[in-house]
């Protein structure tokens, strides 16, 4: 893809480090950038992907822009990673201001085509807790009803059939057949846990899911298998390299745990399938 990138934040480094410096883009600045694209008539896009945002007015401006872009191209697909928080040791907490939740729930999700919340974010958006796989499937149906045709819960604390060393992701894709009837494909993906804290995995997941759903628009199973397999290749290469840099017996630091993206180029572009999805 040819990509026009707008940085919602321009930081010296990611916030997994002890310190960072930089600027946060506000809604007026985002609008100014978009106006430049409009004036030059280069505001026709096939995809929009959004992630980490800290400001409600910025998020509302994103919605306005996406709606206008969809008028330019009715086939535009908006992929939203609703970054709000996560669970640690079973307890969920938000790491963005709480007033972003109603904006995501009431304005962003209804215009999104694909969303990639983690379990905690899916619970926030629907107001419903997930304790079982059945709960998760019902939550995904609730999210479908809000707008998106594809919902992927990227991680959860559900018990994996393969055991405690595996992490469950769940996906659901609704499509309309030629006769007008709607069918839903649901999948479960179990991937090996990696004992480290990485930053940027959600961004990578959403970007690769965009790419692989473009390649396989009606096969969420294959798209997720390729996405999660590529993730595993990147994480395994990263942790292996980080441990070497840290030295035996030492815990890798944030710099050593930076995702090995360039080194994983081949795995990102054409991943060997090492994680299989189960159709539910």
UniProtKB/TrEMBL annotation:
Q: Where is the Pyridoxamine kinase/Phosphomethylpyrimidine kinase domain?
A: 62-252
Looking at the UniProt record for this protein, which Gene Ontology cellular component terms does it annotate, in alphabetical order?
cytosol
- What protein family does this chain belong to? Belongs to the pyridoxine kinase family.
Regions crossing the membrane? none
Keyword Ligase among UniProt keywords: no
Catalyses: pyridoxine + ATP = pyridoxine 5'-phosphate + ADP + H(+); pyridoxal + ATP = pyridoxal 5'-phosphate + ADP + H(+); pyridoxamine + ATP = pyridoxamine 5'-phosphate + ADP + H(+)
Cite the CDD domains for this sequence: pyridoxal_pyridoxamine_kinase
The protein in question is named Pyridoxal kinase
Q: What's its EC? A: 2.7.1.35
Q: Name one GO molecular function term.
A: ATP binding
Q: Name one GO biological process term.
A: pyridoxal 5'-phosphate salvage
Instruction: Give the pathway.
Output: Cofactor metabolism; pyridoxal 5'-phosphate salvage; pyridoxamine 5'-phosphate from pyridoxamine: step 1/1; Cofactor metabolism; pyridoxal 5'-phosphate salvage; pyridoxal 5'-phosphate from pyridoxal: step 1/1; Cofactor metabolism; pyridoxal 5'-phosphate salvage; pyridoxine 5'-phosphate from pyridoxine: step 1/1
């Amino acid at each position: 893809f040819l990509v026009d990138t707008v940085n919602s934040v321009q930081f010296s480094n990611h916030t997994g480090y002890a310190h960072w410096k930089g600027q946060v883009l506000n809604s007026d600045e985002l609008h100014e950038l978009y106006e430049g694209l409009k004036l030059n008539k280069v505001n026709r896009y096939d995809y929009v992907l959004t992630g980490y945002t800290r400001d409600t007015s910025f998020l509302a401006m994103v919605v306005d822009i996406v709606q206008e872009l969809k008028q330019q191209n009715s086939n535009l697909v908006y992929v939203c990673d609703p970054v709000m928080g996560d669970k640690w040791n079973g307890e969920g907490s938000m790491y963005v201001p709480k007033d972003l939740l109603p904006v995501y729930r009431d304005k962003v999700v209804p215009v999104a085509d694909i969303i990639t919340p983690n379990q905690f974010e899916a619970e926030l958006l629907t107001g419903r807790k997930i304790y079982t796989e059945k709960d998760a499937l019902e939550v995904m149906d609730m999210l479908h009803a809000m707008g998106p045709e594809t919902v992927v819960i990227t991680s959860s604390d559900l018990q994996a059939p393969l055991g405690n060393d595996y992490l469950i992701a769940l996906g659901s894709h609704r499509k309309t057949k030629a006769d007008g009837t709607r069918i839903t494909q649901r999948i479960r993906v179990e991937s090996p846990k990696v004992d480290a804290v990485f930053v940027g995995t959600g961004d990578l997941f959403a970007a690769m899911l965009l790419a692989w759903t473009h390649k396989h628009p009606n096969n969420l199973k294959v798209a997720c298998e390729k996405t999660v397999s590529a993730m595993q290749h990147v994480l395994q290469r990263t942790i292996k390299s980080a441990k070497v840099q840290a030295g035996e017996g030492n815990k890798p630091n944030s710099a050593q745990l930076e995702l090995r993206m360039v080194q994983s180029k081949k795995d990102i572009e054409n991943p060997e399938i090492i994680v299989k999805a189960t159709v539910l």
